[in-house]
Fold these 4 entries.
Entry 1:
Amino acid sequence: LPGLHIFAIAFALEVSVGKTNTVMALNNSNVLLPCVFSTCIGFQDLVFTWYFNTTELIYHGKIKNKASEPICVWHNPRVEFVGSTTKKDNNISIVLNNVEFSDAGKYTCHVHNPKEKNAKHNATIFLTVVHKMVETDNTVTLIIVGVVGGLIGLLILFMLIKKVVLFIIKKTQDGKGVKECLVSSSGNDNTENGLAGSKAEQKAPSKA
């Protein structure tokens, strides 16, 4: 009986906004707010709604069944429906046009399926609106971090190669008893210097 109960829950009505629940958009651009739903027994006269910050209704739609596309009951003039329910996924995504800074916040996609014992479920996505200059600065920062990271990697590789070369030279020049002592000492010194160098390099970008 417990196993059957878990099985039923796993295949009940589900609503999803994708792998991540955050979206970033540039000011004055159009942004897609994704949402799909799934149900194990199908749907009949399904109702879906989109809310901004929990209470403000921005889109209200109905779907008769899987063979029909959604019908808009009401929508905010700046909101456009871009989904489809007759294709593979039950997509009820919307696009918010001409995004403004005041549009930043929480968007909730809510689905009600009367056919599935009036099952209800929702998913939330968070929108962040940024200025173009902020977006550009972030990109430049990522490039700088990438370049610095690459230089640190090359430096470590160079140090490792140098260590191997020194080891080979000492192996060919020194006696057995002296060789072990020198290699051990050289290994410790190089490791410590390498760690100190890496830490110094990593601290530099954060101060910039």
Note: The chain is about 40% helix and 30% strand.
Entry 2:
Amino acid sequence: MASKLLRAVVLGPPGSGKGTVCERIARSFGLQHLSSGQFLRESLGGGGGECPRGTGSGGLAPSSLLASLSLRFLPCPGFPRTLGQAKALDGICELDLVISLNIPFETLKDRLSARWVHPASGRVYNMDFNPPHVQGVDDLTGEPLVQREDDRPEAVAARLRKYKDAAKPVIELYKSRGILHSFSGTETNKIWPYVYTLLSSRIPPVLPDEEH
């Protein structure tokens, strides 16, 4: 495990590779990675409790709840998503750094529109760079894949505009504090070495970058 606690978040629009980056951070620096949706389910449902209304079926959990839970597992991808969530997080901890992934919107549109999922497991496929072995069906179960409504081409542009509007004040807030680190590119593999270098200057890695 990392010898120093690092309070960090990774921001980026839908399809920007936040989850992939966080998984690599977790492996490289000995951290545990859970998405906000995962730790909502595990923290509130896994122990016999019930998730509050609004956290299922695509609903949004209260900002204060997500802020509190996010402290248990770092880094947390995509949180905070709004200025309200950022302020709720301020009331609980002071962030050391914020990583922002800047991916061209045209690249994001292509990624999201090519994404299909296996509803029962949540497994995600991309028809361009991670297709299933047999077109249209899940590799493990052979069950049909579906495209989420908000991944359909006509919905993607609206999602990206909504993210941009909500994220702008969050990014400006962290920029004004001098803790924002932005990385631009079209491929996660090309962005990752810069993220690794940044984090290596803050906490000792447990795995060398070559292993990724």
Note: The chain has a mean pLDDT of 77.
Entry 3:
Amino acid sequence: HPACGPVLRAARGYARPVTRKRKDIPSHLDDLPPTLLKKDYANLPIMNSVDDVVKRLLSLEMASQKEKMKVKTQQLVEKVRRSPHDNGSFEVQGKFKKGRILIRTLEEHLQRHPKDKRNRRCMLMDLDRRRKMLGYLRRVSYSTFENTCKQLDIQYSPPQPYTRRVTKRWLVKKAFCIKVFQEKQKLKAAERLKQRREWQARARAARAQQE
């Protein structure tokens, strides 16, 4: 303000919030054409005779991200579908398509907001779930697994085998646990033998009474 002194003007300029420029991160939904209709209106025959303004309102140009994700999911289903009427195969019913879209969306979100730990945890859980489903499909039908990974642009990495670093403390603890387990098994065996002898004595007494 011109009426303020130079010190106050400098202080006001210093106190202004810093405007950070957002990164222009390309989205995986950018390849959808804006003239494409939404999923709920794409197969309606009346859409061929409606006005252009109505088509524009019902197209992806005016759609939300959720509606765009529905269209993207339908496109991925068409890629992995074995036949035009295939609705029951594992790759169609499985969550590969939805998981891929959610994972890509969360990746883009985390690039803009890297400190969002909740969504990072959700993304890791989705990755683990998808890896398990892909591992099952790989064991059942390897050709379908390869085709699904190729069509959905998924890179599968098998889980690494669990390994433990062998230390002296771990070896001593393991030997102690084995010894405790063996002693406990001996006590249980003595108790079982005593119980068995009691049952046998009762059975003999019952037989003697019957005779």
Note: The radius of gyration is 33 Å.
Entry 4:
Amino acid sequence: LMEAWEKGVNPEGNSTNPSNWDFSNSFFFAGTVVTTIGYGNLSPSTVAGQIFCVFYALFGVPLNLAFLNQLGKGLNAHLLTLERWVQKPGRAQVQCQFIILAIFLSTGTLLFLVFPPLVFSYVEGWSYGEGFYFTFITLSTIGFGDYVVGKKEGTNPNKHYIPVYRSLTAIWIVFGLAWLALVFNV
């Protein structure tokens, strides 16, 4: 038991309290490290794990920034395509840019700030306000850790999550960060 504990395995784990290091949680942890959110509910507990985490972050954070930059360029290319589609003869350039910006902001706001709190409030049992708070704190990379998705030790420890829930949340975080970066760029 002591050897397992030292390696980060929860010896009290059972069907209602499994180890924190399943694939979904590991994927989520890796995402929170490279996005610099770091909620703090998952962390390496061994010296070897901590050293690995430092090197993972040293390489992962810059690679993630490069990835988000490329993702932002891809989104920007779609914005330019949308701009060409909206631009019609006789329509002023400023009017086209306003329409594109309105579409971009409203679509992103819905996809990354309005709808996710609905999902989080349904799955996690949070109010919409708590879901929105989590969404904003996450995408701003503040990451206090007071609200974390899939946190079994939260309000209902018997709650069962689908295995990919946290992985999908990590993907939402990456695309949400790319959208925000593009908002700041625009």
Note: The chain has a mean pLDDT of 82.
